[in-house]
Amino acid sequence: MSVFAGILRLARFRPEGFAEFAATPQALLNSLAPLVAFPLVGGLGELAQGNLGTALTDLLATTVALLTPLVVTEYLATRWGRGAYWLRFAVASNWCQWVLPLGVMVIVAVFWTLARVGLGLGSGVVVGAIVGLILYGIGLHWFLARQGLGLSRGRATLMVLAADLLTGALVMLPRVLAA
Fold first, then answer.
1. Mind spelling out the 3-state secondary structure of the chain?
2. 7-25 per-position pLDDT tens digit
């Protein structure tokens, strides 16, 4: 099994990529570890600067952002009789979250390179690239739900909407209320 090969296959919407991921509790913890490590380091940096409130708020937001989709998808998968497939789906979904930050880095590198050679692009192109990446991310989540859990199009759509909207609300609402 190769996590990297699985990510590459799934990022290209090839369902055989699921075979590269183990369906074990340890594999789920392994998939969460790097997703927790980077925000944890950032939180420690805030803490070192004396920003306890910011550090705790960011750590809590990260925890909510990581766990809410897992809870929502596990609940729906079990309710729809697809619980036996959920663990592999969750592991693959966690690892595939790295596709989007890498996509952002590629976009930034391309735009930076073009600007350096004098081919600056308008803000519309930048916004278009960002919107395209967001739509790709939603499409990838939908594909993972549909193929990884064997869901119908409608149920995969409902799962993605429920997980993404609830996660967004739970992460943003405390920040909005605090402002």
1. CCHHHHHHHHHCCCHHHHHHCCCCHHHHHHHHHHHHHHHHHHHHHHHHCCCHHHHHHHHHHHHHHHHHHHHHHHHHHHHCCCHHHHHHHHHHHHHHCCHHHHHHHHHHHHHHHHHHCCCCCCHHHHHHHHHHHHHHHHHHHHHHHHHHHCCCHHHHHHHHHHHHHHHHHHHHHHHHHHC
2. 999 999 999 999 999 999 9
What is d(CA 11, CA 63) in angstroms, rounded to the nearest whole number?
24
- pTM of structure: 0.86
Six token digits for residue 133 = 């990446």
Provide the residue ranges of all domains of the chain, joining segments of one domain with +: 3-178
Q: What is the mean pLDDT of residues 95-115?
A: 85
Angle at 48 between CA 47 and CA 51, to 5 degrees: 40
Pair 55, 47: CB distance under 8 Å: yes
pLDDT at position 155 is: 98
Structure tokens at 169: 């609300």
How many C-beta atoms lie closer than 10 Å to residue 27's C-beta? 20
